[in-house]
Amino acid sequence: MANMLVTGGAGFIGGNFIRYWSDHHPDDWVVVLDALTYAGNEATIADVENVELVIGDIRDADLVTQLLRDRSVDTLVNFAAESHVDRSIGGPDAFIDTNIVGTHALLKAARAVWLDSGSNTSHRFHHISTDEVYGSLMPDEEPFSENTQYRPNSPYSASKAASDHLVRAYHHTYGLQATTSNCSNNYGPYQYPEKLIPLFILNALHGRPLPIYGDGTNVRDWLHVEDHCRGIEACLLRGRAGETYNIGGGVELANIEVVDRVCTEVDRAFSEIGNLDERFPDAPAASGHKSCDLKIFVEDRLGHDKRYAIDDTKARNELGLVPQRDFSDGLRTMVRWYVDNPKWWQPLWADRDTGTA
User: Fold this and answer.
1) Is 60 exceeded by the pLDDT of residue 356?
2) Residue 121 lies in a domain
3) Which CATH number fits the domain that encloses residue 13?
């Protein structure tokens, strides 16, 4: 039985991980530390057993230290982060504070409790990062491996790169038993509707424009959040301390193709599920039209990376990790989840910012 502290556990990926871990390790006790900012939603984990939610900030090293000691925590998984590139361009300070200063506060607390106290506690600090720290690929370049040089291009990715380096430094300098995973673009249930796929699902359901940056040819690798959770589990159980593992979905798609496939799945839902035209009367599909008619092209984002791609050979060989969720099936399931769960997303939708693919 493990006692685990999960930071950012009420967010999209963190919340899905809480649900996954509870299903697969029901005897473990999990403490969630989350500031419940705009992207944190208590409803995401409200029905999960053996989970204690503590509302607080990862920058509060005293609070983290207290939780590690009082709850006898031996595993810390750090999801807490500001993660939206557009927001980082408009307001980078929050990204520096949370992603760098916050991660350092967690590391200091972990060092104090697990190393400096002399307890010699068997422990693991796992840090969740992104493929965006590697920069941008040209169409003919090899995918990112764990040995790819860091070349972040946005305030968001730069802040994550810095946090990755801090985790590495605490392992090599102090002996903290730490691992890091760099994932590709996640999608799935409980995703905040500022990200491409949930935003465009909900825009299509409400008959709102689907704004696409530039010509829509920017390419991303897509990873279902359940496969990501499975990868984090593998890192915790089989990963070697001091190592980094790339976790990808193996599905490279241009943004325009993702948008087209979202539109197809929304239209399919209207043809297969009764009364959607009554629930979402503003959707093009409610009146027999196509969701793709909502597409518009807008000025490209500043510093927009052209392509991300993941080489997950190391995770496959060392951790036995292979993605299990097919993108088409995962996307169809995701569209149906948003159709079936308006009580979860409606409060977020009311407070949403505009977004772009």
Assistant:
1) no
2) yes
3) 3.40.50.720
Distance, CA of 107 to CA of 257 (rounded, Å): 40
Collect all residues with Cβ–Cβ distance below 8 Å to 140 and sequence separation of at least 6: none
State how far the Cα of 109 lies from the Cα of 206, in Å rounded to an integer: 46
- φ, ψ for residue 245 (rounded to 5)? -130, 130
Cα within 13 Å of Cα(306), Cβ side: 7
Range of the domain at 54: 3-183+225-248+309-324
- Distance of alpha carbon 163 from alpha carbon 210, whole angstroms: 33
CA dist 250 and 171 (Å) reads 29
Is residue 27, in this structure, part of any structural domain at all?
Answer: yes
State which H helix or E strand residue 224 sits in.
strand 219-224
Average pLDDT, the chain: 94
pLDDT of residue 117: 76
pTM (two decimals): 0.95
Tell me which range, 87-96, 147-156, 299-308, is most confidently predicted by mean pLDDT. Answer: 147-156
- Rounded Cα–Cα distance for residues 346 and 202 (Å): 10
Q: Are strands 252-254 and 219-224 parallel, antiparallel or unpaired?
A: antiparallel
Contact 52, 72 (CB under 8 A): no
Residue 311's CB is within 10 A of a number of other CB atoms, namely 18
Q: Whole-angstrom Cα distance, residue 57 to residue 36?
A: 9
Whether 74 is covered by a domain: the verdict is yes
First-last CA distance in the chain? 42
Six-digit token pair at 267? 């239209």
- Location of structure tokens 């409060």: 347
Domain tally, the chain: 1
CA nearest to 264, candidates 190, 191, 335, 338: 335
- Secondary structure class of 279 (helix, strand, coil): helix
Q: Is residue 60 part of a domain?
A: yes
Burial class (CB in 10 A: 0-12, 13-18, 19+), 233: buried
Residue whose C-alpha is closest to residue 16's, from 102, 103, 85, 77: 77
- pLDDT tens-digit profile of 11-67? 999 999 999 999 999 999 999 999 999 889 999 999 999 999 999 999 999 999 999
Catalytic site positions: 131-132, 156
Site of tokens 């040819």: 217
